[in-house]
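lol ok so funny story. i was supposed to be doing the assay writeup but got distracted and ended up predicting the structure for this chain instead. priorities right. anyway since i did it might as well share w the group, maybe its usefull for someone
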Amino acid sequence: MKKIFVIDWWLVVIFAFVAISGFGMHISGHRSIHEVWHNWAVVHTLSSVAFIVVGVLHIQTHWTWYKSLIKKGIGNKSRVTVILSVIYLIATITGLILLAVHGANSEIGLWHYRIGIVLTIIGLGHLLKRFKILRKSIEK
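and the output, tada:
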């Protein structure tokens, strides 16, 4: 399998961990058992770090696309992918801010959660549009 598809498949798996743990952390925050919330937070933080690392590798494999976007403008490029890239950057920045502040029940934490929902929805659309190509990568 080509390196690009290995990276993409890792991104899919880690994306699932990030999304599920983010929702799990939010839901458990409404309950009084702090330990459950803490466990979700640990999984979410670790999987998010992995998502950033693999996300950077994913962007590197598609760097030509990004360079042409910068040089020539959006043109016929996928607007969804551009929006996804911007939302990914915002989610990453707000997540990093949460590491530096007491994020539980904070305004920035709530914004990170909202942005995460949007990122999850657009990310799933991005994935579904390309899933046929990903699936074929396994068959080869």
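The chain is about 85% helix and 0% strand. The chain has one domain: 3-139.
back to the writeup now i swear
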